[in-house]
Write a structure and sequence with these properties.
Blueprint (H helix, E strand, L loop, with lengths): L1 E4 L4 E4 L7 E6 L10 H19 L3 E6 L6 H10 L3 H18 L15 H13 L3 E3 L5 E3 L23 E2 L11 E7 L16 E3 L1 H13 L3 E7 L3 H16 L4 E7 L2 E3 L2 E2 L10 H6 L4 H9 L7 E2 L2 H25 L9 H15 L4 H20 L5 H18 L6 H4 L4 H15 L3 H13 L2 E6 L2 E6 L1
Parallel strand pairs: 3-4, 3-10, 7-8, 10-11, 12-14
Antiparallel strand pairs: 1-2, 5-6, 6-8, 8-9, 12-13, 15-16
Helix pairs in contact: 1-12, 2-3, 4-5, 4-6, 5-6, 8-9, 9-11, 9-12, 10-11, 14-15
Bound molecules: adenosine monophosphate and zinc ion (ZN).
Zinc ion (ZN) binds next to loops.
């Protein structure tokens, strides 16, 4: 597989440090509010990436941080008059719910910044030892960008503009105003009771520090892939590199991948512009997580994507086409064992693989998926598909869908069985697994009393209307 590396600005092959395993760090949410669907463009892009790696048999270890201490979370907690953790907890919970709604596979580790302050302090100590950190008059600790020759290599900064000793205290700032950035911020009244002790006095960590410290803790000093939205590239990722490489003297990350923004009317969707929708806003308007996911992944991740309700409409139509085809294949396959797929399906799968292997070319991957839908429909229309081939085609769709995460399988097979009956059948399966034969028989009778027959076969329970 090859990916566009933001550092070198060219496509490069992925060569995992530990063959067959990929370590990947993705900058997570700042949990002061509900994430908006612009944020979820970044998280669905990262989900596609991990699914594509998994498709190729890689074992992925993904780490996503939760930024639960920064200017915004502290401001929110003070305004609400509650401790920081009490303020952030519901947003963390909402974030995980939203990921589920969007069928985003969970990362392996979700470290919270407030649980890793000791690791951050060790990192700052190393930077002092290497002469890269200093304490200013106000007690805050800064990183001296002039002392690290490689500073600016990710954002391709012009070091000519470097103004020695100029400092920026905010977490976010523009390229033009770069200077020494805060590693540790001395306590001030705005911080309320959010404070930690350090060798440099009481204070709290700068935003950039958490990601370097937690990435290295869970993935090692050098790891394979680091991702984020393009707005993270500078200053956040540049500063992550400076802190990590400044402390270890080793390369921090092999591949940097950034997704372009989700836009509204040509502008970045963001909280500060007020032009955003949360996932919840859209679900309340009647859109499903699947439809929203479709819109978010239906484009090349390096191209800006414009959010519109027309796109959601189109997603609904496209998903219905996929569903109808898969349902028809399911009905045709019945209980047939999987045979071999027609030649066009082999070619379709190859086209899909070539697309995702080339820097996650999702537009081409979708084209391959819809070509399979078209060919399947036309083969079924001409009665040219055997049940065993339909079963094999379903397996192909399932394989592709391990990356897309969009398709609903098994609807036709389950079609018409009321959820009440399905629940009883599930209970009966657990009764049987527990060798509770009396319970199993009782449930069979109960199911029969409701007009359904359940039979036991080698493939499990079969249900049909009496
Ligand atoms: P934040 O909570 O602001 O730190 O952002 C979390 C993630 O969402 C980061 O990876 C950002 O780069 C990303 N992000 C924020 N806004 C957008 C947007 N409009 N489109 C795509 N990604 C975004
Ligand atoms: Zn980060």
């Amino acid at each position: 597989m090859q990916f566009y590396n933001s550092m070198t600005r060219s496509k490069e092959p992925l060569v995992p440090i530990d063959s067959g395993h990929v370590g990947m760090y993705t900058c997570g949410p700042t949990v002061y509010n509900f994430a908006h669907i612009g944020n979820f463009r970044a998280y669905t892009f990262e989900d596609i990436l991990r699914r594509a790696l998994t498709y190729h048999g890689c074992r992925v270890k993904q780490v996503m941080n939760l930024t639960d201490v920064d200017d915004k979370t502290i401001r929110g907690a003070l305004a609400a008059g509650v401790p920081l953790k009490t303020f952030t907890a519901p947003y963390i919970q909402a974030f995980f719910q939203d990921l589920k709604t969007l069928n985003v596979q969970p990362a392996e580790v979700y470290p919270a910044a407030t649980d890793h302050v000791p690791e951050m302090l060790v990192l700052v100590e190393k930077l002092f030892a290497r002469g890269l950190a200093y304490q200013s008059e106000d007690g805050s600790v800064y990183f001296s960008v002039a002392k690290l020759p490689g500073y600016g290599k990710l954002a391709h900064l012009d070091r000519e503009n470097l103004r020695a000793g100029a400092r920026v205290a905010q977490d976010e700032y523009e390229k033009e105003s770069y200077g020494d950035f805060a590693l540790w911020k001395a306590w001030d009244a705005n911080d309320g009771d959010v404070v930690w002790d350090s060798p440099w006095g009481r204070g709290r960590p700068g935003w950039h520090l958490e990601c370097s410290a937690m990435a290295m803790k869970y993935l090692g000093e050098t790891f394979d892939i680091h991702t984020g939205g393009i707005d993270n590239l500078f200053p956040h990722h540049e500063n992550e590199i400076a802190q990590a490489e400044g402390a270890t003297g080793k390369p921090f990350v092999n591949l940097w991948l950034h997704c372009a923004h989700l836009r509204v009317n040509g502008e970045k969707m963001s909280k500060s512009l007020g032009n955003f929708f949360t996932l919840r806003d859209l679900v309340e308007k009647g859109w499903s997580g699947r439809e929203i996911r479709y819109v978010l992944i239906n484009g090349h991740y390096r191209q800006p994507l414009n959010f519109t309700f027309d796109a959601l409409d189109a997603a609904r139509t496209s998903l219905a086409r996929i569903d109808e085809c898969v349902d028809a294949l399911t009905a045709l396959a019945g209980s047939a064992a999987s045979g071999t797929v027609p030649a066009w399906a082999v070619a379709g799968r190859q086209a899909f693989e070539a697309a995702i292997d080339d820097d996650l070319n999702l537009p081409e991957a979708f084209a391959a998926l819809f070509a399979l839908v078209r060919e399947s429909n036309s083969a079924m229309h001409q009665s040219a598909l055997m049940p065993a081939q339909a079963a094999a085609l379903l397996a192909t769709f399932e394989a592709l869908d391990t990356v897309f995460g969009l398709v609903r399988f098994g609807r036709a097979a389950e079609g018409g069985i009321p959820s009440e009956i399905k629940a009883l059948v599930r209970d009966r399966a657990s009764a049987r697994a527990n060798k509770d034969w009396a319970g199993s028989d009782r449930l069979r009778d109960e199911i029969a009393a409701k007009g359904w027959e359940v039979r036991d076969s080698k493939e499990g329970q079969k249900v049909k209307k009496l």
